[in-house]
Amino acid sequence: METVQIQDSPAGNELSPLDLFRVDAYALLGSLLAQAPTEELLSWLQSIELIDDPQSSMREAWSVLQMAAGRADPDQVSDEYHQLFIGIGRGELLPYGSWYLTGFLMEKPLVELRNDLDALGIERDPEVREPEDHIAALCQVMAMLVSPDQNGGDQGPAQQFFERHLATWWRRFSQDLQHSQTAHFYSAVGRFAELFFEQEALLFSRR
C-alpha cells in the first residue's frame, strides 16, 4: 500500500515524510476519536494537501474525509459523536480493546495494557476518566512511540505495542464505524482509520 504525507505538518521538518505522516495520522485519529472535532479542526482537515499517488486508496480515503469535513456541521457532528460513543448509558459503539477482545469492559486486555504502559513509563492523565484501552488513547500512545523524536529511531516498542494492543481488533472497530447507520462524518473517519492501520500492519510486518 502506498503511503501518504500530510503537507506542512506541525510535527516538524526534521522527520522524514513517512514519519511525519505516521505521527500526524495517529495524532489526528486520537483527536477525532477522543471527542467531536471543533470547527477549527474541520476547517483544517479541508485545507490539508497530501503528497501521494492520486489513485491510491489512502488518498481516496483522505479525500472522502475532507469532503465529509466540508459538509459537516459542528453541532451535528457533536451529536453524532455522542450517539456513537457516549449515548444515554452507553453509545452505539464501545471503542475499547477489552470489549472487542472479550465482550466485557475492564478485562484482562486492559490489565496487560496498563502493565505495558507502566514499562514504557507512560502515565495516565488523572483528569481522563476513560480506560486506557480506548481507541483514542491507544492512537495517542502510538503517535509518541512512532516518532523518532521520542524513540531515537527504534521502532521496536511501537511495533510491539501495535501488535499487542491494536492489531487484534482495529479492523473490526474501523468497519463497525463505517457500517454504523448513525455515522456520517465518522464513517469517513472509520475508512481512513482502516486503511491507515492496514498500512501500519504492513509496515511492521516488513521489519
Automatic annotation (TrEMBL):
SUPFAM superfamilies registered for this protein in UniProt: TorD-like (SSF89155)
Q: Which UniProt keywords apply?
A: Chaperone
Pfam families of this UniProt entry?
Answer: Nitrate_red_del
- Kindly give the InterPro entries that the UniProt entry links to this protein: DMSO/NO3_reduct_chaperone (IPR020945), TorD-like_sf (IPR036411), TorD/DmsD_chaperones (IPR050289)
Q: What is this protein called?
A: Molecular chaperone
